[in-house]
Amino acid sequence: MLGASAMTLLLSGCGPQYMVLDPVGPVGREELHLIILSVILTGIVIIPVLALLVFIVWRYRDKPGNRAPYQPKWSESRVLEVIWWGIPIVIVGILGYFTEKTTFALVRPPENNIAPITIEVTSLDWKWLFQYPDQKIATVNYAVIPTGVPINFVLTSDAPMNSFWVPRLGGQEYTMPGMAMRLWLQANQSGTYYGHGANFTGRGFAHMNFNVIAKPATQFYGWVQRVKSTSHPLTRAIYAQLKIPSVIGTTQYSSIPPNLFNGTVWADGGKYMPGMLPAQGTGSNSMKHNSTQ
After folding, report:
1. 10 within a domain of the structure (yes/no)
2. Is 228 left (phi over 0), alpha (psi -120 to 50) or beta?
3. Tens digit of pLDDT for each residue in 23-54?
4. What local confidence, expressed as pLDDT, does residue 83 receive?
5. DSSP 14
């Protein structure tokens, strides 16, 4: 009851500090269900232990005329052993089963009958670069996604290791040099969702924030066309400037160099990843090959 009451209290006032408890997509909802289950199961252990602690301190306190039996040679109780080992083992087993089930379910697209969109994410000092390999555009410090569509975020880093997290959409995933990590997310309603880097990466760490803007599909593709027609291309020279440690605002680019993302992973040791080829053509084709591994 205490755990459920605490969860209810948190859910009743989901401000910025409790965004993870107010998900807007299937991935976030599954993870919230796992959090609630964990609270309930741990409450089954913690609440009785605390109640017994209070009871024992009161019941067996020393007092005048105490006639409690004195058993200095008492050493074990099989009944108590079964209780305090058996119950936690059962609880850990239940929690482990549902954690494993949820974890492996979330490595697949949230919707199997809808074509996903791939966004290649590179964490830099101290900014985020989002590349859309199929739309052939890029943005810095914000991403736009269509609602109701699975998003395949493919993550790497061209700076110290970081962690990509959009609390209202789902859990976090690390960005690491030489690695291409995958995170499926989906937003089922329009809105602007806060995201940030969850790893300390130097003095500009506090500015490693970004927004994920979810729009209906028609508005998303209209935005893509506006970026293509009104923005400058992302060149390798501009990317070299982005790699320099700095804090900047948001921007967008009308095109991306071929194989920029895959080349970044390869240059940082990604050639040792199974399926990561020194791609020919666009980075999206190579990453599709790698994502099947």
Report:
1. yes
2. alpha
3. 999 999 999 999 999 999 999 889 988 999 99
4. 87
5. -
Q: Which structural domain range is residue 10 located in?
A: 2-59+77-105
**What is the number of domains present in the chain?**
2
In a shared domain, residues 144 and 199: yes
Report the distance separating Cα 258 and Cα 278, nearest Å.
Answer: 12
Residues 82 and 148 reside in one and the same domain: no
Q: What is the CATH number of the domain that holds 189?
A: 2.60.40.420
Classify each residue of 208-226 as buried b or exposed e, where b means 16 or more C-beta atoms within 10 Å of its C-beta: bebbbbbbeeeebeebbee
Q: Is 29 part of any domain?
A: yes
- pLDDT: is 14 or 61 the higher one? 61
Distance, in Å, from the CA atom of 147 to the CA atom of 252, rounded to the nearest integer, reads: 20
Terminal Cα-to-Cα distance of the chain (whole angstroms) = 44
The per-residue pLDDT for range 124-147, each reduced to its tens digit, is 999 999 999 999 999 999 999 999
Q: Which helix (H) or strand (E) holds 96?
A: helix 78-105
pTM of the predicted structure, to 2 decimals: 0.80
Q: How far apart are CA 144 and CA 175, in angstroms?
A: 20
| Cα→Cα distances 3→7, 85, 290, Å | 6, 22, 42
Contacts 24+ apart (CB under 8 A), 128-135: 128/164, 128/197, 128/208, 128/210, 129/239, 129/242, 131/256, 131/260, 131/261, 131/283, 132/224, 132/256, 133/256, 133/261, 133/282, 133/283, 133/284, 133/287, 134/284, 135/224
**Nearest Cα to Cα of residue 214 among 191, 185, 184, 188:** 191
Is-contact 119 151, C-beta < 8 A? yes
Beta bridge partners of 124: 127
